[in-house]
Design a protein that fits this description.
By secondary structure, the chain is mainly alpha-helical. The chain has helices spanning about 5-20, 25-35, 35-45, 45-70, 75-95, 95-105, 110-135, 145-165, 170-195, 210-225, 230, 235-250, 255-265, 275-285. It contains 14 helices and no strands.
C-alpha cells in the first residue's frame, strides 16, 4: 500500500472514530487528507469501500502478529494464549481509533458488507477461543467450550471498552493472565454443573449465509439493470423474475430450488453477471 493511500485510511479512521460513519462525508475525508474529492475516488470507490479497507487493513495487521506467536515453540499452550491476548489488548490500545470505529459501528450498521465483516470477526474470535479452550483443558470440556468462549468474549470486550472509552490503564500481561484465570474458573464450574446453554452451534455459524446470498442477488440485479439495453427487455425481465424468486426461496431456505433457479439464470447466457453468479453458486454450495 502506498503512503498516500495509507494516510487516507488513517485519516478516515480517525474521522469515523470521532464522528461516526454516517456523519462523516467523503468531502470531509478528502479535505483532511489533503486530496481533491475526485482523487479520493481513484483510491476508494465509495465510503463503504473505504470503511471495508480500513477494517481489513488493521485486522490483517493484528492477525499476522497473533499468528506469529503460534511459532514460538518455547511457550506452553497457556503462555501462548496469554501472550496472544496481551497482544490483542496492546494493538487495540495502540490503534485506539480502530477499536472506537468497531464499538461505534458494529451493532447496527446498514451496509451489508460492513455488517458481515463484524459478524465474521466475532465468529472468528469465538471459534479461535473455543479451539484454545479444548486445546488447553482437554476433550472433556468440549461440550461447554462454546459457552465458555462466549463468556470470555464478553469479558475481553468490556475490558477493552474500559481501556479505550473509560481511560483505564492496565498492564496488558496482568489483564490477560487475570482473564485467563477467570476463564479457568468458568470452565471448572461448567465441569462441576455439567450444564450448557448452547447445545448446537451449527445455526450460529451459518447465520451469515442468508446475508451473503442476498448480497450476490442484489449485485446480480444491479448488473442486470446497468446492462439492460445490451441484454434486451425479454431476457432482462426473465432474469429479474428469477432473482425475485431467489429472494423468496432464500427466506424459506430452499437450497434445491435456489440451485435450479441459478442454473436457469446461467442458461440465459448473460456475460456481465457471470462472476456474481459464481459467487452465488459458491455460497449456495456452502449453505448449512
Amino acid at each position: 500500500m502506498n503512503e498516500k493511500k495509507q494516510f487516507i485510511l488513517e485519516t478516515a479512521m480517525r474521522l469515523f472514530a470521532q464522528n461516526g460513519f454516517h456523519l462523516t462525508s467523503m468531502q470531509e475525508i478528502a479535505e483532511h487528507s489533503g486530496v481533491a474529492k475526485g482523487s479520493l475516488y481513484t483510491y476508494f470507490r465509495s465510503k463503504e469501500d473505504l470503511m471495508i479497507s480500513i477494517l481489513n487493513y488493521y485486522d490483517n495487521l493484528l492477525q499476522k502478529k497473533i499468528l506469529q506467536v503460534e511459532y514460538e515453540r518455547t511457550l506452553t499452550p497457556k503462555e501462548m494464549f496469554q501472550k496472544q491476548l496481551s497482544m490483542h489488548f496492546k494493538e487495540f490500545s495502540h490503534d485506539r481509533d480502530f477499536l472506537l470505529v468497531q464499538i461505534r459501528e458494529q451493532s447496527f450498521h446498514s451496509n451489508l458488507k460492513i455488517r458481515h465483516f463484524f459478524f465474521k470477526k466475532r465468529k472468528d474470535f469465538l471459534l479461535f477461543t473455543t479451539q484454545k479452550i479444548i486445546q488447553l483443558f482437554g476433550e472433556e470440556v468440549q461440550p461447554y467450550a462454546f459457552d465458555c468462549a462466549i463468556i470470555f468474549h464478553g469479558m475481553v470486550k468490556e475490558y477493552s471498552v474500559l481501556m479505550i472509552k473509560g481511560g483505564y490503564k492496565f498492564s496488558y500481561d496482568e489483564l490477560s493472565a487475570f482473564l485467563i484465570n477467570r476463564l479457568e474458573n468458568v470452565i471448572a464450574g461448567c465441569l462441576v454443573d455439567q450444564k450448557r446453554i448452547v447445545n448446537d452451534t451449527s445455526d450460529y455459524f451459518c447465520i451469515d449465509a442468508k446475508d451473503h446470498s442476498l448480497s450476490f442477488i442484489n449485485q446480480i440485479e444491479q448488473l442486470l439493470t446497468k446492462n439492460k439495453n445490451e441484454i434486451g427487455d425479454k431476457k432482462y425481465e426473465r432474469a429479474i423474475a428469477i432473482t425475485n424468486a431467489m429472494k423468496e426461496n432464500l427466506a424459506e431456505e430452499q437450497k434445491i430450488v435456489l440451485e435450479g433457479l441459478l442454473i436457469y439464470l446461467q442458461n440465459l447466457n448473460i456475460p456481465s453477471i457471470t462472476k456474481a453468479m459464481e459467487g452465488m453458486e459458491h455460497i449456495i454450495n456452502k449453505r448449512c
